[in-house]
Amino acid sequence: MASVYKSISKKKQERLVADEISEDEDMDMNDLMDEEFSDSDDDDEEEEIEENAATNGANGQQSNKNEGFMPKTRVLMLTSRGVTHRHRYLLSDLSALLPHTHKENKLDTKKSGGYNMLLNSLAELHSCNVVFFLEARKRGQDLYLWLSRPPNGPTIKFSVTNLHTMGEMGTGFAGNCLKGGRGIVMFDKSFDEKGPEAVSQSGTEYRGLIREMLRKVFCVPKRGVRGMKPFIDRIIGVFGVDGKIWIRVYEIRESEAGSKNKDDQAEVKKATKGAKTGSTGPEVSLVEIGPRFVLTPIVILEGSFGGPVIYENKEYVSPNQVRRDIRLEKASRYAQRRDVQADHEVKKSSLGLGKEGRKRDALDTREVFA
Q: What segments bear the compositional bias annotation Basic and acidic residues (predicted)?
């Protein structure tokens, strides 16, 4: 038995040696094949480089075409302490209207001292590149909006007036807009730098900057938004009139062609009598659902909540100045009335018609109750 085991082990060793020799021979042949076809491989590599360059050029053209698309943006929305219920409802309406927003709790600006660094750190913590901050002053009488692009800026300060929420407009259940849908943002010609001549003049470049900042807030990106629905059922209108920015929100409502009254149908028939009659689709109309508010630009800063002033609205009058003027006008009217009364008393006393110049009668109160 021992001899049998020895013979078997010798045969295994011989087989292992033969396999090693065959592997060495194969490796040598492969090396020879690599040396023979090295030139052809270089040619293949050059062709691959050319193909990659062509594909990169095509990708570059596609990237140039996609320059107009909206990049991924995330808006941080929060308010300061001292806001009223109307201001809170405005923020909740906007956060429900825009799916790419993140709503944060109130910020205590008095205890923190300066809220510029705190807002920048909050934006960095929540991965937001736009800050929408509502600041209330004078116990909620004045409301200011800060739009910023952290961490480098710029920052625009607005005064918010003529505020109406969706609940105040009475259209809370009238609209049929889906939560998470995208809206069409429409700017009028006053924001277009290539539009009217007044905008192309020097000193009106700030309108383009305001347009881009509002576009970052109200334009919802196509991708990268959680909870966004692939529907477009609203229009957000941004209009520049009298140096102010008027923002309105409308719902795109579709109705059947035969749902209108007879008078409306007759008018439509008269208007389309000469036109070619084809397949009539649904009738589209716009219904304002809110919220609505007016923004007045005050100042534009170069940095994020700080830095040098690059634009200042000289025509803006603060609400404090307006209230002060009203108080001074009331005080002036009261002083004028008192002056007239004093002159009248002096004139009466000079003519002897005053109380001091009169002779006391027996029925005078000073005599009776003396």
A: 258-270, 339-348, 355-370
**Block residue for tokens 């036109």:** 275
Going from the C-alpha of 347 to that of each of 23, 341, 351, 360, the distances in angstroms are 134, 10, 6, 21
Residues 226, 87, single domain; the answer is yes
**Long-range contacts (CB closer than 8 Å, 24 or more residues apart) made by 205-211:** 206/297, 206/300, 206/310, 206/311, 207/240, 209/154, 209/156, 209/300, 209/311, 210/156, 210/245, 210/297, 211/187, 211/238
Give residue-wise pLDDT tens across range 120-160. Answer: 889 999 989 999 999 999 888 999 999 999 888 899 999 99
Q: What are 103's strand-pairing partners?
A: 77
The range of the structural domain enclosing residue 349 comes to: 318-353
My answer on whether 176 and 122 are in the same domain is: yes
Q: Which two tokens stand for residue 342?
A: 């004093």
| Residue 39 covered by a domain | no
Same domain for 349 and 239: no
Residue with tokens 């943006």: 73
The model's pTM: 0.68
Instruction: State how far the Cα of 316 lies from the Cα of 295, in Å rounded to an integer.
Output: 11
Does 70 map to a domain?
no
Overall number of domains in the chain:
2
| Between residues 352 and 339, the one the model is more confident about | 339
Q: 239 and 324, same structural domain?
A: no
Same domain, 185 and 325: no
| Residues 241 and 346 placed together within one structural domain of the fold | no
User: Is 94 a domain residue?
Assistant: yes
Q: Is residue 106 part of a domain?
A: yes
> What is d(CA 200, CA 29) in angstroms, rounded to the nearest whole number?
75
Q: Are 295 and 245 in contact (CB under 8 A)?
A: yes
